[in-house]
Amino acid sequence: MDTEVPKEKGKLAGIDFGSVRIGVAISDPDRIIASPYEIYTRKNERLDAEYFKRLVREERIVRFVVGLPLHLDGRISEKAREALAFGAWLSQLTGLPVDYMDERFTSVEAGYYLREAKMTVKQRKKRTDKIAAQILLANYIERGCRGTDVPESLDDE
After folding, report:
1. Distance CA 23, CA 81 (A)
2. Is the pTM of this model over 0.70?
């Protein structure tokens, strides 16, 4: 990064993790509003790394919030394990802290809003992941920028 942004202020990036597509949302520097940003289609590790480094540099991101797709009962799912590994990679790559936020039902909620807006299935598909990222980032901000506690053990019981 070019400059150090004070920890008490700065943009957050919400990440709706997927193995093919990643929804991205960004907050304003005062962390009041979360806005959908874009959907990134994953390519390979090198190009994915370039994308996230550029995102941090151009948008002056100071922290990532990665969605954690937990089971309905709150247990860690296989997708949640993948999201945790992605978050660790993202932190190592960018040097930025990563928080995790329970993202159960964010895609369902995003779909509801997009259907209410009378969008076609094709239009909804193009927007769902970034709206889900916006919802999880807004939830994170509303919680006072506190993420979801991750259980100590990630082993299935």
Report:
1. 18
2. yes
